[in-house]
Amino acid sequence: DIQMTQSPSTLSASVGDRVTITCRASQSISTWLAWYQQKPGTAPKLLIYKASSLQSGVPSRFSGSGSGTEFTLTISSLQPADFATYYCQQYNTYPWTFGQGTKVEIK
Amino acid sequence: QVQLVQSGAEVRKPGASVKVSCKASGYTFTRYAVHWVRQAPGQRLEWMGWINAGNGDTKYSQKFQGRVTITRDTSATTVYMELNSLRSEDTAVFYCARPQSVLNGMDVWGQGTTVTVSS
Questions:
Q1: Smallest Cα–Cα separation from B83: which of B12, B4, B6?
Q2: Of B101, B10, B52, which Cα lies nearest the Cα of A91?
Q3: Burial of B100: CB neighbours in 10 Å, binned 0-12, 13-18, 19+
Q4: Would you call B104 and A50 a contact, using CB atoms and an 8 Å cutoff?
Q5: Backbone φ and ψ of A67, nearest 5°
Q6: In sequence order, what DSSP letters do the residues of chain B get, joined into one string?
Q7: For residue A100, what are the contacts with CB-CB under 8 A and spacing of at least 6?
Q8: How many other β-carbons are positioned within 10 Å of the β-carbon of residue B17?
Q9: What's the CA angle centered on A62, arms B43 and A72, to 5 degrees?
Q10: Inter-chain touch A46–B63, beta carbons under 8 Å
Q11: Were both Cys, which of A3, A66, B24, B45 would link to A71 (CB 3.0–4.6 Å)?
């Protein structure tokens, strides 16, 4: 199985900060990577697909980049609604696998 | 609007089975796959398998192979996930989710169904 590793596991930031989360795959997944946001008690929400494509309706402050084994999710200016846990997910190879999550907390 | 609505919370004893439903609406049911994802308390999301709602083909994660069965009822536009031989480690929230296409991530999710396994 392809292992997905995110860093950091927890991130403390303030409103207005630029935030970057990294996701590494144990083998190349081309650009078959998605990012999700999850808030407590709710289902994940798709933010980015194919590494850098913004899902319809998602604010433009979210962006994704990378290919192969290293990927990043950037939030250009953190807003109160963005405090949540973020997961990367590869869909290059079955079984699809997720990172362990990055919790973005209020500093 | 496009939505997936799951059945309610379940409590089972170890060794029992559970069957969770996921009713689709707002789109042509047979044109899309439906996936199932598990999330144990405090754990990462875990992909279980998927079904082609059109022809019924399925694929499962090796981790759940032999214990999970995903089926669909096209007349009811509903997908089902049955997990057998439950153990306490299966206590989790189970989600169904639908990708826009094979190129995209999963853009539509059910609300989740909590399954508690306890003696």
A1: B12
A2: B101
A3: middle
A4: yes
A5: -165, 160
A6: --EEEE---EEE-TT--EEEEEEEESS-GGGSEEEEEEE-TT---EEEEEEETTT--EEE-TTTTTTEEEEEEGGGTEEEEEE-S--GGG-EEEEEEEESSTTS-EEEE---EEEEE--
A7: A4, A5, A6, A9, B44
A8: 12
A9: 60
A10: no
A11: A66
CB contact under 8 A, A95 and B104: no
Contacting residues for B78 by C-beta, under 8 A, at least 6 apart: B21, B22, B23, B24, B72
Question: Residues B39, B43, B48, B53: what is their CA dihedral angle, to the nearest 10 degrees?
Answer: 40
A85 touches chain B (CB under 8 A): no
Tell me the one-letter amino acid at A41.
G
Written as tens digits, the pLDDT of chain B (119 aa) is 999 999 999 999 999 999 999 999 999 999 999 999 999 998 999 999 999 999 999 999 999 988 999 999 999 999 999 999 999 999 999 999 999 887 888 999 999 999 999 99
